[in-house]
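Worked example 3 (structure in, sequence out).
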C-alpha cells in the first residue's frame, strides 16, 4: 500500500525545488570531496560549504546562486565541462533553480522548472534517437565495441561481454526502445515513476560497468522537477 501511495503521489513546485536542492547538495558535495583529496581547495572548499548550507536549508536561495557562480567559474578554469554531460546537467539544474528563485511570480517559477523537466525528457529521447539512426547501434556492434575497446570498463573481466554479441544486441535495443518511449511515461504518474526507477537503474549499471558515477547522482537530482511537471500538465 505504501508503495502505491508513493507511485501515485505528486509534488508542489516548492517541494520539487526542496528535493532537488537536497539531492544536489549531496551530488555536488561528493564531487567536491573528490577534488579536495587531490588538494584543489581554491574552488572546492567554498563549493563544499555551499553544498552543506543548501542541504541544511540555510541561506535560502544564496547557496544555489553561489554554486551557480562557482560552476560558471569552473567552466572558464577548465575550459568547458570537463566531465561532459554530468557537468552540463549540473549547470542546467543550477541555472533553472537560480531562475526559479529569482522568478517574480509563480508563473515564471513554473516556467523555469518546466524547462528543466523538458530538457530531462529530451536527454533520454535524443539519446535514443541518435542510437536508432546509427547502424552500428542497430546491429549491436556499437555496444560490443564499448566493451571491447573502450577505456571505460572498470574491470577487464567485463570485456568478455564483447564475445556475447546476441546478448549485447538485445540489451542495446532495450536501451534504445526505453529512451525513445520515455516521453510517453508523462501520460501517467505511476508510469512516470516506474520509468524513472528504470532510468535510475540504467544509470546505476553504467556507474558499475563504466565508472560513470556522476551521471547517476546528477540525473537523480532532476527527477523531482519531472514528477512535478507531469502532475502540472496532466
Amino acid at each position: 500500500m505504501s508503495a502505491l501511495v508513493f507511485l501515485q503521489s505528486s509534488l508542489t513546485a516548492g517541494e520539487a525545488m526542496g528535493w532537488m536542492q537536497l539531492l544536489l547538495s549531496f551530488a555536488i558535495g561528493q564531487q567536491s570531496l573528490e577534488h579536495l583529496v587531490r588538494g584543489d581547495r581554491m574552488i572546492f572548499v567554498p563549493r563544499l560549504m555551499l553544498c552543506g548550507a543548501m542541504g541544511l536549508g540555510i541561506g535560502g536561495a544564496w547557496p544555489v546562486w553561489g554554486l551557480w557562480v562557482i560552476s560558471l567559474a569552473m567552466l572558464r578554469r577548465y575550459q568547458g565541462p570537463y566531465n561532459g554531460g554530468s557537468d552540463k546537467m549540473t549547470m542546467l539544474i543550477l541555472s533553472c533553480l537560480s531562475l526559479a528563485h529569482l522568478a517574480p511570480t509563480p508563473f515564471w517559477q513554473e516556467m523555469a522548472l518546466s524547462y528543466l523537466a523538458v530538457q530531462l525528457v529530451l536527454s533520454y529521447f535524443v539519446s535514443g534517437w541518435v542510437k536508432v539512426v546509427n547502424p552500428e547501434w542497430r546491429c549491436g556492434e556499437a555496444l560490443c565495441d564499448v566493451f571491447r575497446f573502450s577505456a571505460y570498463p572498470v574491470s577487464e573481466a567485463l570485456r568478455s561481454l564483447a564475445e556475447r554479441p546476441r546478448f549485447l544486441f538485445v540489451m542495446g535495443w532495450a536501451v534504445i526502445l526505453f529512451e525513445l518511449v520515455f516521453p510517453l511515461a508523462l501520460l501517467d504518474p505511476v508510469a512516470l515513476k516506474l520509468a524513472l526507477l528504470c532510468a535510475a537503474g540504467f544509470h546505476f549499471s553504467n556507474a558499475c560497468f563504466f565508472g560513470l558515477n556522476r551521471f547517476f547522482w546528477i540525473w537523480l537530482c532532476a527527477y523531482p522537477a519531472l514528477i512535478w511537471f507531469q502532475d502540472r500538465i496532466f
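Notes: Residues 12-233 form one domain. The two ends are 24 Å apart (CA to CA).
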